[in-house]
Amino acid sequence: MAPAMSSAFELAVPSSGLATLVFDLPGKKVNVFTRSVLSELEKLIERMATSQDIRCLVLLSGKEGNFVAGADIDEIADVTDPAAAEEGARVGQRLFQAWNELPFPTIAAIQGTCVGGGTELSLAGNYILISDRQDVRIGLPEVRIGIVPAWGGCSRLPRRTGLASALDIILGGKSVDGKKAFKIGLADAVLPDPTFLREVRSFAEQVLQGRPPPRRRSNLKSKLLDGNPLGRDVVFSQARKQVLKRTGGHYPAALQAIEVVEVGRRRGLEAGLQAEARATGALAVSPVCKNLIHIFKMMEASKRESASLETDQQPIREAAVLGAGVMGGGIAQILADRADIPVRLKDVGTTPLATGMAHAKEIFEKQVARRRLTRPEAARKMNLLLPCLDYAGFRRVELVVEAIVEDLRVKQQVFSELADQVGPEVVLASNTSSLSIDLIGRDTPNPERIVGMHFFNPVHQMPLVEVVKGSKTSHQAVQVVLTLCRRLGKTPVVVKDGPGFLVNRILTFYMTEALWLLDEGRAIEDIDGVMTDWGMPMGPLALIDTVGIDVAVKVAHILAAAFADRLVLPTWADQLAQPERLGIKTGSGFYLYKGQERSKPDPAVYRNLGLATPNEPSDPGEFLDRMVLPMVNEAARCLAEALVMNPSELDLAMIMGTGFPPFRGGLCRWADLQGAERLVTILRQLAEHNGERFQPSVALERAVEGGGIYATYS
Ligand code: NAI
User: CB of 467 closer than 6 A to ligand 1?
Assistant: First the structure.
């Protein structure tokens, strides 16, 4: 057969019969299975099926770093008819079944990220070879956008890897590296990247000669479990329990995926494929799926935005962190780990320094335990941290992150001191959580290089960084910090200087309302329970315990001073922070703790604050309105003040910084879906019954007139 060209695929069939098919979607950075790509592939498969010349086919990608990025997400976002969604699943299934039935062996040779449909096509073939490059991943992320792998993924993956490994990938929406893929039997070989194509060829030649290397087998334990019905029941019921625990039942796709995998395992491939398609019909049109796709797109847009700023900027080669406390130790650790650069960690005493270093070491050890780092790698990175008590060596650093005590005068003094120790162009970032960036840098020469870099606690786990642009902060300084955030694997959101910046400002309204509910005789567990049932990772009172009662009250006071018209604390708020009752860090707060584990609400709280023991019945609907609507109200104000660029960025910040439930689509999107007009009416009623603080903001009223928050402020 002569070499054939189509727009997305290039087939080459040399006389040896060892054919290659290169997927290279024109005009795109990654390969996606759009409708037209699928129809091209269909024609190609038809032709290849009757070819006398092909004896073995290797599927390759023409894209650097990407094999296949999956189906076209826009097509899933747009589908509104369940029957059309179901048919979309069947189209891919028929095609991949035809691939499976080709009259010669097929090999997927994966040298870049391979997810979703790419993985499913590979699974439909005979062999999967994968490069050992660190950033190469293979997986099935579908549940993350609210659907199940429906082009054969749910039905074919368990056949290859055994149930437990397959469920781990499908239910977690995970991707694994080559080593793991080989270990669980997903890949048949991991090949060295520099000689990848040569090794693929030699593998294919062995296949051609009829002596392919032995197939990977799933391990003994999974064989035993999968092999008998009782073992399978155990695996499925455990999976169900874990998913419910992790998601509170808010993410139907993962639960559906278990059912689909179960059908495929019990009743065979054909029944499994039918179940995949049926599940897709219902899931793809659901609000949860649409919300999750919306968030996925926001994140992609945010990445593109930062990438467009990254131009030709030199990466930071050496940094310093001031303050080795909870935050400083964590920031130094992540700089050494993810940016892989030397970091000077300065504090005023050897004891806090030792604590900071121990904190960093503990995080590295956890990474080793989770196999994210090898022990020697962790040791080398730990050695990048240089504890110090003075400014020696600061001339070399290209960025300083300040994380000392939250005291304006101390910070001002340290910043002007710092200016003498580093070059005038060195970016000085503050991790302050509530102080004004403009004020912190007031006495520092070259204030244009001063910027906020507000990490969240714990630094290595929380994905958000608020990048605070003061009135004098230069575009260049913001750019340096944005680039660094991406390098650290964080999601940066640029915000303007202002009390509490964005996330803490909105959150304080929510947490304060929880205090008012407590004041009115409601129980701690009822207040928090309403919010966790709604999907928040923890309730507002548990959150105050986590942040530290002293810290939360301090921030609340700062904000109450700034927004006195609508943020008022109960009179007993100052009694909340007692030295022995500061939340998790002291073992008690609103709750009692065993180490980091929350045990139960502490009844002493009511007594200590002079509140009656709760006996009021709860009204979850009212609780929810009272805690969530003030956040919506404040979000509208933040947008009107242009504190953040647009509602998408605000939603992203709330999801990444507070765990706002992703399946609800984000704070502003949720409000729009409820109908901003309806929310304004409820706020007016609340203002009438519970106080002026609920009065709808002008900004929110404007959004109602403008057709919603997104329509008004995007
Ligand atoms: P911390 O009290 O645990 O640590 C502060 C450290 O700074 C101490 O080790 C202290 O010895 C050191 N220090 C004080 N003056 C210094 C100086 N002149 N030079 C060098 N080191 C000095 O405080 P934490 O919680 O780590 O907070 C630090 C900063 O991070 C604050 O601005 C805080 O608002 C902010 N932040 C805190 C969060 C939290 O959850 N704890 C979250 C986000 C920001």
Answer: no
